[in-house]
Write a structure and sequence with these properties.
mainly beta, Neuraminidase, 2 domains, four-stranded antiparallel sheet, 1 helix, 28 strands
């Protein structure tokens, strides 16, 4: 019979307590508890508290990763209502950065990192198409959207982005299904969404994207999900809970949507596997809409939001290395 030593090249250690820094795949016997344990990649699917924003805000944008994130703009709940404040997150706390040039709420941040991102659109004293590019130290005004609007879905990175749907009022008052593509220099209109909406979640890349949820005319929460292949949108399976203004993260085949508004603020969290959405039993600790989101399906962030505006940051862990007791089942 093959032994563990022959498979792994080491024996199972007998320890009186679990190691403080186990190695990936390490297995040991805890003599105090009488259990066999291992350090494995396991499903967690839970939210935990992160460091609070310095400026509480709603209708802001977010970009980057769980340990290197960016948030900018938003509504701050007092005159002047629109904010130009920008902050960076290191996985523990937020630090103030150079402010964006145009204060706004409802703009989106598009970017894979916290040092190379775009802030796009929003509402200042009017609906704007203003685009600003971030290089890690300063904001530079770039070519605007062809149609100024607020509350868009966002997909992609700084040099290959999509601005999806949105809202404008007045005139003409209404929700947009239009989609614009950015090549690092200018915006170009591409094929529109099948379902007109604002405040949708977004995930993926400029050629393999996903748009989900949002608000349909007239402020009706949407459960629609659409997949983008670089040229056309295809309707796929719906969210379980229709809502808009939630936070989005991940890729076309592994996305996450959390919070938002169903008519009242929601804590709902759903994950997408490329085919269908699954509701997570545990939602956000703080139910909220107009939340900024970023990250991956395994590690995401929820930042700020309504009602408030909120300062709370929550960190999502989908899967992580954990110490687990090994049983025959």
């Amino acid at each position: 019979m093959t032994t563990f030593k022959e498979i792994r090249g080491t024996t199972i250690e007998v320890l009186s307590s679990d190691p403080s820094n186990p190695e990936t795949g390490q297995i040991w016997y805890n003599s105090s508890s009488g259990t066999l344990k291992g350090y494995v990649y396991a499903t967690v699917n839970a939210w935990s508290s992160g460091g609070n924003l310095n400026t509480g805000r709603t209708l802001s944008g977010g970009a980057g990763t769980q340990t290197a994130a960016l948030v900018a703009g938003g509504g701050v709940g007092a005159s002047p209502y629109n904010s130009n404040a920008a902050e960076s997150y290191n996985g523990t706390s937020w630090s103030n950065l150079t402010s964006i040039n145009t204060a706004r709420r409802g703009g989106v941040i598009i970017g894979g990192t916290n040092t190379a991102s775009l802030v796009v659109g929003g509402y200042d004293t009017a609906y704007v198409g203003t685009t600003e590019s971030w290089n890690g130290s300063s904001w530079t005004t770039a070519n605007p959207l062809s149609a100024g609007r607020t509350s868009m879905g966002r997909i992609g990175i700084q040099t290959a982005a999509l601005a999806v749907g949105g809202y404008y009022s007045p005139p003409p008052t209404g929700w947009y299904g239009i989609v614009e593509s950015y090549n690092g220099t200018s915006w170009t209109s591409v094929n529109s969404l099948n379902t007109t909406r604002s405040s949708s979640g977004g995930a993926g890349t400029q050629t393999a994207g996903l748009a989900f949820g949002g608000d349909k005319p007239v402020s009706t929460p949407a459960n629609n999900t659409e997949s983008w292949n670089g040229s056309t949108w295809t309707s796929v399976n719906n969210l379980n809970t229709a809502r808009g203004s939630g936070g989005g993260a991940g890729t076309q085949t592994a996305a996450l949507y959390y919070g938002g508004s169903t008519g009242s603020v929601s804590s709902a969290t759903e994950s997408w596997n490329g085919t269908s959405w699954t509701s997570n039993p545990t939602g956000l600790a703080t139910a909220r809409a107009s939340v900024a989101g970023t990250g991956t399906q395994a590690e995401a962030l929820a930042m700020g939001g309504d009602t408030g505006p909120k300062t709370q940051t929550e960190e999502w862990t989908g899967q992580a290395f954990q110490t687990k007791t090994i049983t025959v089942s």
